[in-house]
Structure formats: structure tokens, C-alpha cells
Design a protein that fits this description.
heterodimer, A: mainly beta, 5-stranded antiparallel beta sheet, B: mainly beta, 7-stranded mixed beta sheet, 4-stranded antiparallel beta sheet, about 0% helix, globular
């Protein structure tokens, strides 16, 4: 069964601090991995997308890494802000179908305190 | 900001009522999706469409139905709502390019069936 596991389930940090969220997956054949940010009561918004050949990708204060050999990814947030409080979802796509099926993790709930 | 809209944002109805959740996108995307998400849980695909007159069931069995008469419109209908249908419903769309393209999500409809 294709799975995406994220850790930690929740995280509280102080404003200005850095943090790293983890994602392990078993989806095969692998196509790409995406990180989404979902604010409470809103739909997910894409932060980064990485294919097999990409090891790292940045989007402002967000930096995602991918190790396709170990099937692990991380999302590093630098100098956190209150607006970073949200759920961060790891999503892996397979290439076994035309649709490019997406497999969603349960997300890491990040809370940034002032 | 993605041009994909869902209405209503919130809906509280009684058991047995027929409801339609609206989803429209102005990006000209062929592929559209409906996901169901319970609090703290991953998104589950319940319906998708490759284009006009194309609809398919997703991974999670759902009593809802969908239609795709126009490219920009992908409504979801529940003929007789039940408390077990209480959940958040997220609509998404993506353009050409298979699994490499990003899915853009609407803000979601939070449904409560009493």
C-alpha cells in the first residue's frame, strides 16, 4: 500500500526560530513530491514540488529536500513568523497512471507563538 | 492566488436533504478533483474528471455524484445527506502535463449534517 508518513504530528515553536518537518513515503513508482501549506479552514496551497532528480528546492523561507533513495523529504522553515502557523502536508505523486495519483500525508500542525 | 471557487463555504443541513456543492475554476484546466478531509486526517480523493463529460470515482467510496458539463464547473451532489457525510469537501484542478502539474485547491466547503 502506498503511504506517506509525516512527523511530528504537531509542533510548537517561538517566532523567529527555525524548524524542520519530516516526510517518509513508500509510493512507487515515484513521480514527484510536493509540500502544501493549509491554513485552518482553507484549501492547501503549493509551496514546492520536486521530481526524482531534484535534491532541494526553496521558496522564500521554505526549503524542501528530497532523498529519493531513502524515500525521505524534509521541509525546513527559517525565521518562523506567526503566519507560518498552519498544517504542512506532504504529497507524493506516482507515475503509474495518466492521472498521476496523489498520496497525501496527514500533515504536521505547526503553531508559531509570539 | 488560485482562481478556483467553492460555494457555499459552510453548510448546515438536516438529514435527508439534497445538496449540491459548487466548484468553478477560471484557469481553463481540464482535470478537476473532489477530496474529502476530516479534521487531522489526510485528504481522500472521491471523484475526478479528465474533462467535459468525463467523471471517475476516486479512492474513497462516496455516495455523492458529480457532473462535468462545462470545463469550468464540477459540482458535487448528495441526494440524501446523512450525518456520516459531515466533513470538509475540497475541490481542485490542474492543467496539462500529467502528474507534474500542481493541483490548485479551492477554500473548501465545510458540511455539517444534523
Amino acid at each position: 500500500k502506498n503511504q506517506v508518513e509525516q512527523s511530528p504530528q504537531s509542533l510548537i515553536i517561538l517566532e523567529g526560530k527555525n524548524c524542520t518537518l519530516q516526510c517518509n513515503y513508500t509510493v512507487s513508482p515515484f513521480s514527484n513530491l510536493r509540500w502544501y501549506k493549509q491554513d485552518t479552514g482553507r484549501g492547501p496551497v503549493s509551496l514546492t514540488i520536486m521530481t526524482f532528480s531534484e535534491n532541494t528546492k526553496s521558496n522564500g523561507r521554505y526549503t524542501a529536500t528530497l532523498d529519493a533513495d531513502t524515500k525521505q523529504s524534509s521541509l525546513h522553515i527559517t525565521a518562523s513568523q506567526l503566519s507560518d502557523s498552519a498544517s504542512y502536508i506532504c504529497v507524493v505523486s506516482d507515475r503509474g497512471s495518466t492521472l498521476g495519483r496523489l498520496y497525501f500525508g496527514r500533515g504536521t500542525q505547526l503553531t508559531v507563538w509570539p | 492566488e488560485a482562481d478556483i471557487y467553492q460555494t457555499p463555504r459552510y453548510l448546515v443541513i438536516g438529514t435527508g436533504k439534497k445538496i449540491t456543492l459548487e466548484c468553478s475554476q477560471t484557469m481553463g484546466h481540464d482535470k478537476m478533483y473532489w477530496y474529502q478531509q476530516d479534521p487531522g486526517m489526510e485528504l481522500h480523493l472521491i471523484h475526478y474528471s479528465y474533462g467535459v463529460n468525463s467523471t471517475e470515482k476516486g479512492d474513497l467510496s462516496s455516495e455523492s455524484t458529480v457532473s462535468r458539463i462545462r470545463t469550468e464547473h464540477f459540482p458535487l451532489t448528495l441526494e440524501s445527506a446523512r450525518p456520516s457525510h459531515t466533513s470538509q469537501y475540497l475541490c481542485a484542478s490542474s492543467g496539462e502535463g500529467g502528474s507534474g502539474n500542481i493541483q490548485y485547491f479551492g477554500a473548501g466547503t465545510r458540511l455539517s449534517v444534523l
